[in-house]
Every structure is written in structure tokens, then in C-alpha cells.
Amino acid sequence: MMTNIEQRWKDVAALAARIRRHTIEMTHRAKASHVGSSLSMVELLTVLYAQILRVDPNNPDWPDRDRFILSKGHGCASYYAILAEVGFFPVEWLETFYQNGSKLAGHATHTYIPGIEISTGSLGHGLSVATGMALAAKRDNKSYRTFCMLSDGECDEGSTWEPVLFAPQHRLDNLVAIVDYNKIQSLGTVKEVMDLESLTAKWESFGWAVREIDGHDLREIESVLSQIPFEKDKPSCVIAHTVKGKGVSFMENKLLWHYRSPQEDEYEAAIRELEGEG
Amino acid sequence: MRTAFIQELFAIAQKDPRIVLMVGDLGFGVVTPFIERLPRQFVNAGVAEQNMTGMAAGMALSGKIVFTYSIANFPVLRPLEQIRNDVCYHNANVRIVAVGGGMAYGSLGPSHHATEDIAVMRAMPNMLVVAPGDPIEARLATRALVEYEGPAYLRLGRAGEPIVHRSEPHFALGKAIMVREGNDATLISTGGLLPEVMEAAERLAEHNVQVRVLSMHTVKPLDEEAVLAAARETSALFTVEEHSVVGGLGGAVAELLLEAGLFPAKFKRIGIRGGFSSKVGTQNYLREQYNLNALGIVNTVRDELKF
What we know:
The complex is a heterodimer. Chain A is an alpha/beta fold. Chain A has one domain: Rossmann fold (3-Layer(aba) Sandwich). In chain A, 40% of the residues lie in helices and 10% in strands. Chain A has a 5-stranded parallel beta sheet, with helices on both faces. Chain B folds into 2 domains: 2-155, Rossmann fold (3-Layer(aba) Sandwich); 177-305, 3-Layer(aba) Sandwich (Rossmann fold). Chain B has helices at residues 2-15, 32-37, 49-60, 80-88, 117-122, 135-147, 194-205, 224-233, 249-260, 283-289, 294-305; strands spanning 19-23, 42-44, 65-71, 94-99, 128-130, 152-155, 177-180, 185-189, 211-215, 218-220, 236-244, 266-272. In chain B, the strands form 2 sheets. In chain B, strands 2-1-3-4-6-5-10 form a 7-stranded mixed beta sheet, with helices on both faces. In chain B, β1 (19-23), α2 and β2 form a beta-alpha-beta unit. The longest helix of chain B is centred in the N-terminal third of the chain and has 14 residues, at 2-15. Chain B is globular and about 60 Å long. The two termini of chain B are 36 Å apart. The interface between A and B is medium-sized, with 30 and 27 residues.
């Protein structure tokens, strides 16, 4: 007999699997880039929307909702998929990703899509907007939290580090930055292009409370994100170690899959693997 | 204008907790009332205009009306992408306030000359562009901008400009104020040159040329009705701005006239030509060098009208 807790984790894992499959299908159908960046954060998005964020898909503009901003807007396939799966909009919309006349653009876009706080796509913007939302909550004595997911590549942007400086100064312990640290950026590995190490020490030295996690371990993600704020009066940062292209063996840790869209045979192989036949 | 703006904003903010003044570590001595009496409605973002603008969007999307405030180009050009993507795209209630429009910080050099800001802000989708002509207009514009929905740019001068309006004019965003009547020519002015334009009009009257003066405090949306009426009723149109002749008020008026099929006998954009200032000096000195003071404006009009 499965306990309720075990059943819940099974459901969460099943949800993550559906998000992964949607992501492959969407990027294949759309001939879209960024499948690797979308796959690396599937577990993070799944736990956030299934277990952490206080949001109501039936009332997306609820004033006291937690805010989530996908600063790495190029990874939007899995983001759209989780929003649809938890009920912000019909799952059928996912089939229109990238298409003429669609609501779903190739970077996270707020117009006409319930549940998306802001449009992103140019890197190094999301954390500032998130910081403004967190600051407004503090000034208004509101209890909502603001979460922002960043890519490792966008930590190259100077503008990323401006709110990293600001938030501790203003004791924004209602702000959470999650870095999807998949170690591969646009033209090479992070180490080759612009080494971020020690990334944890950098955020800590700016005054954030930092936790490093395995960004694909559902239980670890949930356990850590449930402890926010990690320290009173400090913003929280989660460095999530992830694998670009996670879940499809031939995509994992491959720079190619920052850009390449799954062709027919690759799509079929990926689906077979996700279904446990690979 | 700076003083009028701050006093008006402070008065409104005392009654309206949605108002936030966010500065880029500038405004020494000017923003003190906010720091001391409305600390929860004041944010110093530090010397970080990109973050200032992104945060302003975030606060605005959380119900605030945020005025970002800094000098000349700093709140405009450095965070331009934040203005476009974070503020304009989300139609956020952010008002970008630049003090020192034009060459108000003359002696500080071209880094501190805001001479392309109107053109750049005009091009931003959803953006309202306002450049008051005197402290009275600055006060009224501030009041109107609190009520306005959407992003706006407010271009101010410095402090201590002369007052042009002897009584409080009717002020509506997007509606020019006719400051002086006349049917021989029209001077359309935006921003802090209004006093020079008024003086130029008085001097031209001595030559029996009656000049209409429009204070075009809102460059976008342009008051098309007022411009087209001036083009029909007066034979010569001059736009006057302490700004590049590229893309500012002059460009906006030229675009309108051509598309409307109205061709005044004379049309001239009076503004800054030739790029960066190669001269060092005060605002008054630089205005003189660029023929933007009353005498320079009179001479340009006389050259064009040949008298």
C-alpha cells in the first residue's frame, strides 16, 4: 500500500515527465532552439508550481500570489508546459508554440497568457524586476514571495549583479533567485566562456544566503525551497546544479542542443527514451 | 522646474501612498523631504540605472506609480532596454524623470548633455514624452502624470528658470498651450527654451511680425490639431528645441505636415546641428553658440523670412 506521501511524489514525478515530453514535442513541432535549456529546469519548475508557489490558476491576478519570473526567457517551452499542466491555460495551446498567430512566442511573453508576470528574452532583466516586486511587498507589508529563475549564462550580464548588490542592502528576504547552473552557455561551456566559479562564494559575498542543490532531485528541491528564507533579512539564492538537455541521453551536456531542434528521428528516439523504451 | 517637480510630487505623495520616488544616487539637497518624511516612498537605487529601471517596472506592476529620477542621459540611455522591455512592453506606470534636459549642465560636457533623449524616447512604444516649458508647466505636468496610465518620460530643466505663464494655463497632456497669438509665423517650442522663444517673439513684433507661440510640452502624442491649424493659419513654421534636430520635435512636426499634405511656405527646425558640442561653457553660452537664444532665434527667423 502506497502512502499518501509516496503517492504525492509519484504524482510530482509524473508531472515532471509530462513537462519533459511536452518540451520535446513543442520544440520538435516548432523547429525551435533551446530544448536543452528548457529540459535542465524541468524538475525546478515542477516543484515550484506543484508544491512551492502560492498561486491560483483560476485567479492568476490574485494580489497576494507569489510571483515567479523566468529571467531565462529562452527556456520557455517547459515554462509554458508547466503553466498549462497546472491549469493556467489549456494544454492544447502548447501545440501552437512558435506558430503564426499563436499566443506562445519563443521567449516568455505575458500578453494574453495568464500566469506570466513579465515577458523576458533579453538576459539580465528578470532579477531587477523581481527585486522591485519584492521591495513593493516589503513596503506594503505583504507576505507574497518573489522567485526568479536565472540561467548561468546571464550571470555574465552586469545588470544581473546590480540587483544582487541591491537586495541584501534592503534585506529582501522575500526574494529568491534560482540559478539553473547547467554549465553550458551559448558558444561553449561556462568554464570556457566566462568561468563563474566560485558562484556560491560570489552570491554569498554579496550578502545572499545560498544553498547548492541537485536541480533534478525533486525531494531535495522541495526540501530546500520549503526553507525560504534561508536566513532572516537575507535574500535567498539556490544554485541548482543541472544537466543541459536532461532526460534525453543524446542531448545531455551537449552544446549542440542549445540550438538544435529535434529532427523526426531524434524526436522519436527521445520520446522512446522518455517512455522507457530507449 | 526641478524644484516645482519635487514640491508637487512631495505634496501629492503625502496623500497617495502609491507614489514612489526612485533615484540613481542623485538629487543631493533636492530629495531630502522624501528621505526624511516619506522614507517608505523613497528608494535610492545606487549608481545602477539598469536595476533602477527594472525595479521601477517591478514596483509599478505591484501597484506603485514610480518616478525614476536622475541627471540628463543617465535614466534614459543607460537603461534603454529596461525602458523598452520592462517598462514600455508591460505598459508599467513608470515615469522617467531627467533633470538637465538639453545643455542645462553645459560646462559639465557632452556626457551630461541630453540632446537625443526626445528622439529616443519618442521611438519607444507606449511612451508619453513631456518636456515642460517653465516651472508652472512642470508643476502641472507632474500632477497630470500621477493620473496618467502607462509609461512616461518627463524632461526637466534645472532650477531657477523664469516663469512664462503669468496665470495658471489650462494644461492637458497632449494639448499644446498657445502662449502668444499671431498669424505671420509660428514658433513651436518644447522644453526649457520657451522663455527664449517668447523673447524672440517680442523682438520680432518690433519688426511688425506677429508670431504665434505654441508651448508643445507634450511631444508624444503630438497635438496634431494645433500644428495643422498653425500650418494653415500662418505661412511659416519653426520648431525650437534644445535637442538635436534629428528625431525630436522638429522631426515629429515635419512627419505630421508631410503626411497631412500641408507644406508651409517656410519650415525650419531650430535645434542642435553638428553633433557633440566642441565648446565648453554654461547653458546660456552654449545656447548662444548654437543660435538657440532669443537673438539666435530672431536671426534664424529673419534669414528665412528675408527681412
